[in-house]
Design goal:
Pfam families: Ank_2 (PF12796). Keywords: ANK repeat. It is built from 8 helices and 2 strands. It is mainly alpha-helical. It has a single domain, classed as Ankyrin repeat-containing domain (Serine Threonine Protein Phosphatase 5, Tetratricopeptide repeat), CATH 1.25.40.20. The protein has a two-stranded antiparallel ribbon with strand order 1-2. Strand 1 and strand 2 form a beta hairpin. Helix 1 packs antiparallel against helix 2, helix 1 runs parallel beside helix 3 and helix 3 packs parallel to helix 5.
Length: 192
């Protein structure tokens, strides 16, 4: 069996290497065209999610370089990579029986949040099974820097949306022909 397809306790090689921070091995695996980057293990964890949980920023960077990475994948508990990076605390025991996982230091997760927010398709409004968003988790955990990053991202998106809406409205009013309704010769009276 080729090394990029090897499994450890039911985990594909990419997920295993990502979980343990083996950036060189991840880089090697990602060179294979047939690699399914969004593959999930039995607990629903993807390579991006496990690298984020463990705070392996070099691996997260490598994974985010791939355009086909799905940043919205959820694990069995409804966590995405962004939700996990915003949590920065003890994770409950996973579905596969692993011991409790602990997210890396706040500085590492802040950097990972920055990387994730740099992706155009990142969805900050996704919720886990407890109905938490990345922002609500960061607020609950009192991670001020992550709270600020998420709020700035939302404000930037809102400003861009407002700008797009305003420019679309301007284009319509500039290009739309003026319409006038000629006065009617007949007066319509309601019938009784």
């Amino acid at each position: 069996m080729p090394p990029y397809k090897m499994r450890e306790r039911g985990r594909p090689a990419l997920i295993y290497a990502s979980k343990h921070g083996y950036a060189d091995f991840v880089r090697l695996i990602l060179q294979r065209t047939e690699i399914e980057i969004n593959l999930q293990d039995r607990g629903g964890k993807s390579a991006l999610l496990v690298a984020t949980k463990k705070g392996h920023i070099d691996v997260v960077r490598l994974l985010l370089e791939r355009e086909d990475i799905n940043t919205s994948l959820k694990d069995g508990k409804g966590y995405t990579a962004l939700l996990c990076a915003s949590h920065n605390g003890h994770q409950e025991i996973g579905n596969d029986g692993d011991p409790a996982l602990m997210c890396a230091a706040l500085a590492v997760h802040t950097d990972i949040v920055r990387l994730l927010l740099g992706r155009a398709e990142i969805n900050t409004s996704l919720k886990n099974k407890k109905d938490d968003t990345a922002l609500s988790i960061a607020i609950e955990e009192r991670h001020t820097e992550i709270i600020n990053l998420l709020k700035e991202h939302e404000q930037a998106l809102q400003a861009k949306e407002n700008e797009t809406t305003a420019s679309a409205g301007t284009e319509v009013s500039e290009t739309a022909p003026a319409t006038s309704v000629p006065p009617s010769d007949k007066t319509i009276h309601p019938t009784r």
